[in-house]
Amino acid sequence: MAEDKIGPEDLLVMELVDVVEGRPPRTEAYKKSYGGAAYLNGTGSGNWEPVARAVEFGATQGEAQKPAREALLKTIFPLMRSRFMITETMSLIYGSMHLAAFASIARTALAQNDQEVASEALACIRLYLSIAAARQLPDGRVLVAGMRSAGHEAWEYGDPWASFALDLALQRDTSRSFAALKKAGKGPKNAWQKAVFTGCQSALVQAMKGWQEDSPLPSGFQATTPLHVLKTSEGVATWIEQNHNSNTKPEICSVWTGGEVTTLPGPRLAALHGKRTNRGWIEASCRREDDKLVVVIDGETFSVPLPGGDVRLSLRISAAGEIEESPNRPDGPDPEGPDPGDPDPETPDPEVPDPEVPDPEPDGSTIDVEALAAEVEALGAQPPETAAAVALVRGRQWQEASQVVFNLMVPKRNQGARVALSNRLAAMAVSFR
């Protein structure tokens, strides 16, 4: 690959493999910050910053590790709790980068007996893989519904990396998911995901320890858009309610019934939007109406029947922090493969602390604008730059303020505060637009 064609994500995942395999990172891409406004608002890549901090956390120790640890506890994990995976909710294309970051962080934290970081990383892994398990079909495929999922992936194979990681976590035979990866053209022998997930299997196993189909999800998580999974005696359906990512198009829903999978937009995307179908914005939404899903894609409406039969699982993660699950879920059809074994009753599941994450304000009218302006001034940038940022804050132009704050030249001691404030302003831009 030519040097000028290697993007940050290519360098970061190679660095992550280095850390997991016990080598120093081969480049210094992880030393950059990728946590500006685009990280939150969907115009950029939400996977770069978690992977960069995972590399930094794994490649350093002692005093040198403190900035990465602080970034994880004060920025990354609170963001995952308030908007899981930001605007890449269960992305087919980039979800494996999020999961790999969590797995590497958990592995490092467990090795260093850092319970605070480990518990948060394990909770993120458990949520991700619990969603994947709920979406898994009897043939092992994991249905796809998520932002940044359309276009250049073989969606008909589901999410094969989620299947592979889930097999590792539940200590099942991986031959079936490995074969699915080969069919999907993922080149699993040399893939970075295989190296990271295999190297971090102990963390994946710890995260899913004691898991059963009726296990509760980790508490205290929100999503940018509500996410649903419905499993019945006759099929499985999963959907997200709204697309919020303008960088890459979504797969808004998938339904498996009668042995067939229907994914939207799926193959319809090319007919609707022509070439380069994965890039850019589409207006896409999905809602349940009785026994069907109603999907609207750029003004065109589609109807997808939901599977019938007895409900075995009904799961919903909402943007308001609500996580609903059916209180008594009888066991569904077991995916093929060896039984992961009985949970160890003497070893409790990893504790998942519930940090205080304030509910988003309904319209932002009670935000203390002057307090935010004071935070901008305290960053210590040059007066003209500070004045421009303060004016945007006072004008409640959160998106523009976030970008300007992120680009302020500030003393080194204030760089972490600058990124954190930029992230908060970007979150306001999404919440109050």
Number of strands: 9
Radius of gyration, in angstroms, nearest whole number: 21 Å
Q: Could you describe the largest sheet, including whether it forms a barrel?
A: 6 strands, antiparallel
Number of domains: 3
Number of helices: 15
**Helix/sheet category:** alpha+beta
Strand order of the largest sheet: 4-3-2-1-8-9
What percentage of amino acids are in beta strands?
5-15%
Q: Which quaternary structure do these chains form?
A: single chain
- H/E element order: HHHHHHHHHHEEEEHEEEEEHHHH
Average predicted local confidence, pLDDT:
81
Low-confidence stretches: 273-277, 320-362
What sort of overall outline do the alpha carbons produce when their principal axes are compared?
A: globular
The share of residues in helices is 25-40%
C-alpha end-to-end distance = 40 Å
Describe this structure in words.
- The protein has 433 residues and is α+β, with helices and mostly antiparallel strands.
- The protein has 3 domains: 3-207; 227-325, no CATH class; 369-431, no CATH class.
- It has helices at 8-20, 37-41, 48-59, 66-82, 95-111, 115-135, 160-169, 175-183, 192-199, 201-207, 268-273, 369-378, 383-394, 398-406, 415-431, and strands at residues 227-232, 235-240, 253-257, 260-264, 284-289, 292-297, 300-305, 311-317, 323-325.
- It has a 6-stranded antiparallel β-sheet, with helices on one face.
- The longest helix has 21 residues, at 115-135.
- The protein is globular, with a radius of gyration of 21 Å.
- Mean pLDDT is 81; it is low at 273-277 and 320-362.
